[in-house]
Amino acid sequence: MQWIPEYQGDVERVERFNAVARITHWGHTVTFLLCLFTGLALFLGGVDWLAAIFGGYRGAGLVHRIAAVGMTLMLGFGVVFGFMGVIEWVKDIFRFGINDIKFLMVFPFEFLGFKVKIAPQTRFNGGEKMNSVVTPTMVILLVLSGYIMWFPALFPAGLVRFCYPVHDLAMIFSTVMVCMHGYLGSFHLGSGESFWGMWKGTVRTDWAKHHHAIWYEETYGDKAKSE
Ligand code: HEM
Ligand code: HEM
């Protein structure tokens, strides 16, 4: 059984993500998941088997803080060294238009594995644009509330108390998003090739033309070549 489509190095490919974007994404993923599993041990309580992986509940609290600092550093790395990439990303999110709405309307069918006709998409499709807004917003809330909970003496007591439900709710929303996102970016039949874009940096040209027709045309198409 094959989970992710085989990487095809012998066909024409185009660059999708540069090294900074890929290092930031995967570094962030590892530290986010560490925060999630250690955080779940603290949140649920009574899950000794989960806490045991991190050396008990105190160990989970320590690994949580170390992973949190790691995640913050990864985000800082991405912003500093990939600043222009972040700007391009934000610009693309705000190019939300009719084709993105059309994408979102057929997305549930595509998610369930049906073959659907996709309206031409920019660099990020309608679903990825939604993910690009919701997930980073939740991560920013996790970071802000997390540091306030970590250093309660520096903040008003009411704010510190407020941060606990904020941290928990942001954890729940981001986890739901990451579950769907992780599946779409790997095992999902139609979009699995995108995994190689984030892992090795390139995707098959035919896949790029089909999934992100506007982005392909603007970046690698005839018009882009003549400019
Ligand atoms: C910079 C990022 C983060 C910081 C500074 C941070 C900090 C903290 C701190 C100080 C606590 C309290 C720990 C204790 O009671 O010993 C905590 C708890 C928790 N964190 Fe984070 N965290 C961060 C990111 C995350 C992420 C990414 C997730 C999950 C996706 C997460 C999920 C949780 C959960 C579920 C709890 C338990 C809350 C509760 O008991 O109600 N945290 N975090
Ligand atoms: C769990 C494993 C994960 C896998 C397999 C995965 C896979 C991917 C892939 C393949 C892309 C590029 C999609 C494209 O071609 O546009 C991507 C983009 C992205 N990833 Fe992940 N990712 C994972 C975890 C995460 C986590 C933990 C976060 C944040 C909490 C995250 C946030 C993003 C964002 C914001 C983008 C850009 C928008 C988008 O494409 O949806 N990813 N990811």
Draw up the topology in text.
Layout: E1 13-15, H1 19-44, H2 48-53, H3 56-81, H4 83-93, H5 98-111, H6 126-150, H7 157-184, H8 194-199, E2 202-204, H9 205-211, H10 213-220, H11 222-226
Antiparallel strand pairs: 1-2
Helix pairs in contact: 1-3, 3-4, 6-7, 9-10
Write a concise synopsis of the structure shown.
71% of the residues lie in helices and 3% in strands. It is mainly alpha-helical. The protein has a single domain, classed as Up-down Bundle (Fumarate Reductase Cytochrome B subunit).
Poorly predicted runs of 5 or more residues: none
Radius of gyration: 20 Å
Bound molecule kinds, no repeats: protoporphyrin IX containing FE
Across the major sheet, the strand order is 1-2
Following the backbone from N to C, one meets helices and strands in this order, namely EHHHHHHHHEHHH
- What is the CATH architecture descriptor? Up-down Bundle
List keywords for this structure.
227 residues, mainly alpha, Fumarate Reductase Cytochrome B subunit, two-stranded antiparallel ribbon, 11 helices, 3% strand, elongated, binds protoporphyrin IX containing FE
How would you describe this protein?
The chain is elongated and about 60 Å long. The protein is an all-alpha fold and 227 residues long. 71% of the residues lie in helices and 3% in strands. It has 11 helices and 2 strands, in the order E-H-H-H-H-H-H-H-H-E-H-H-H. Strands 1-2 form a two-stranded antiparallel ribbon. The protein has a single domain, classed as Transmembrane di-heme cytochromes, Chain C (Fumarate Reductase Cytochrome B subunit, Up-down Bundle). It has helices spanning 19-44, 48-53, 56-81, 83-93, 98-111, 126-150, 157-184, 194-199, 205-211, 213-220, 222-226; strands spanning 13-15, 202-204. One protoporphyrin IX containing FE binds at residues 16, 25, 28-29, 32, 124, 128, 131-132, 135-136, 139, 174, 178, 181-182, 185-186, 194-195, 197-198. One protoporphyrin IX containing FE is lined by residues 16, 25, 28-29, 32, 124, 128, 131-132, 135-136, 139, 174, 178, 181-182, 185-186, 194-195, 197-198.
